[in-house]
Write a structure and sequence with these properties.
The protein contains nine helices and twelve strands. It is α/β, with parallel strands linked by helices and 326 residues long. The chain has two domains: 68 residues, no CATH class; 195 residues, Glycoside hydrolase/deacetylase (TIM Barrel, Alpha-Beta Barrel). Strands 6, 7, 8, 11 and 12 form a five-stranded parallel β-sheet that branches. It has a three-stranded antiparallel β-sheet with strand order 2-1-3, with no helix packed on it.
Length: 326
């Protein structure tokens, strides 16, 4: 009896243990969520078992602890990694953008080009008859040399020419005489004295007309007649400084230069010796061409002014020489 009771008790214990185990398994199965929802599957995703069989997500066959997941391309990023699987690599940081090129430094401004002063126009002398003057710029001015000026005398040779030559000789300087053909023909000895003193001689036409009022043939005739008396010269000064491209072209075609002036004291108008001196000395600079007259009327004021001008030029360290191009 004792043995029989022991077996009965053992069977009851075993039955109770088995029942307990089955209840536990059933409870676990009841509380375990579907595999598909554990990893966030959307309807229509598939779950592949270890055996490689694909079943619809959420079916009982898909609920195995050994199952692995195959995600469709539409699976969200948060469901792409199962717990315990290697983490998906973090997206690489975007490459830093290249720094914007710095703006080039502004270039230094170009140095301003210095303004070149143009020669101012000068009022030209009237003829000995008192004709109104015209304004013309000086042309063919020789290069300025330190301490050098160019005294020039128009309309001779005439009664004042010997005194002018004597003053120039006293100061050991030279000048340029623009002579008219008619006066040169009437005073050949004075023309020779000019050349003997080392002075230059230029063509001032035959009888002092305004060349711009003449035809090309008329201009050439004025110059040719004077040249026949004084010989070939390299310089021409149009009377009154009255010139034009046509006149200048005729002179150039002859191989000669047109010479005007920089300083005009208007000594022909006889304003007084002191006025002539002041006008010259206030304007003269190294390289200046000074216009004066030794004929064409009474030139006593011009001679008196020349005496003072030469002294003051000496004081300022300036000396007159003949125009080198003549």
């Amino acid at each position: 009896m004792s043995i029989q009771r022991a077996w009965i008790r053992a069977g009851i214990v075993l039955s109770t243990s088995a029942a307990t185990a089955m209840l536990t398994i059933a409870a676990l199965a009841a509380i375990a969520p579907p595999a598909a929802s554990a990893v966030g599957h959307a309807p229509g995703d598939t779950v592949t078992s270890a055996a490689g069989t694909a079943t619809p997500a959420g079916s009982p066959a898909s609920i195995k602890t050994t199952s692995t997941l195959t995600l469709s391309p539409t699976t969200s990023a948060t469901a792409a990694t199962r717990p315990g699987s290697p983490a998906a690599p973090a997206p690489s940081a975007p490459a830093p953008s290249a720094p914007a090129p710095s703006a080039p430094a502004p270039s230094a401004p170009a140095p301003a080009t210095p303004a070149v002063a143009k020669k101012t126009t000068n009022t030209t002398p009237a003829a000995s008859t008192g004709t109104a003057t015209t304004t013309r710029p000086a042309t063919s001015t020789p290069s300025a040399k330190k301490g050098v000026v160019y005294l020039t005398f128009d309309d001779g040779p005439g009664p004042a020419t010997p005194e002018v030559l004597a003053l120039l000789a006293q100061h050991h300087v030279t000048a340029t005489f623009f002579v008219t053909g008619s006066n040169a023909a009437a005073n050949p000895r004075l023309l020779s004295a000019i050349r003997a003193g080392g002075h230059a001689v230029g063509d001032h036409t035959w009888d002092h007309p305004q060349l711009t009022t003449l035809s090309a043939a008329g201009v050439s005739d004025q110059l040719n007649r004077t040249e026949a008396v004084i010989g070939k010269t390299r310089c021409v000064r149009p009377p009154y400084g009255d010139t034009s491209p046509t006149v200048a072209g005729i002179i150039a075609a002859r191989g000669e230069r047109q010479i005007l002036w920089d300083v005009d004291p208007k000594d022909w108008s006889r304003p007084g010796a002191d006025v002539i001196v002041d006008r010259v000395m206030s304007q003269v600079r190294p390289g200046s061409i000074v216009l004066m007259h030794d004929a064409g009327g009474d030139r006593s004021q011009s001679v008196a002014a020349l005496r003072i001008i030469l002294d003051r030029l000496d004081t300022r360290g300036l000396r007159s020489v003949a125009l080198p191009q003549c």
